[in-house]
């Protein structure tokens, strides 16, 4: 069954924009994509938590992945990628606010360079595309990991900063 073997080597990913960079997530961890709406801020919440919103009767925690990955560029923050509760263990419904959503596409395992990100928390690899790089990130990266990804999607390094 060559078709089944070929299918096993491909993963569907959702490409989205954060600042000037393009990132992707395995589509299997995503429940839905919704327009960004009004958020309710939570006092004393961590910096990466933007607030909560009511999403069809579920209180959904909205996280800013730019804070998690130390991305400084700004953008329109138009969409929310909501994760599947069963696939991502955050203790409730969680979504990431992203600048825009581009496309869903198949990624072949040979197009993913994991060597450049082997020591980086929250980064699966760099997806090589025709004329660009796409950073494949994990939805369950912890805020204290302090992962820093530059806007080009090429380099990732740990950033240990002390707060006063």
TrEMBL record:
One of its GO terms (biological process) is signal transduction. It comes from the Archaea. Signal peptide: none annotated. InterPro entries: CheW (IPR039315), CheW-like_dom_sf (IPR036061), CheW-lke_dom (IPR002545). Residues 10-148 form the CheW-like domain. GO terms for cellular component: cytosol. This is CheW protein. It comes from Halorubrum cibi.
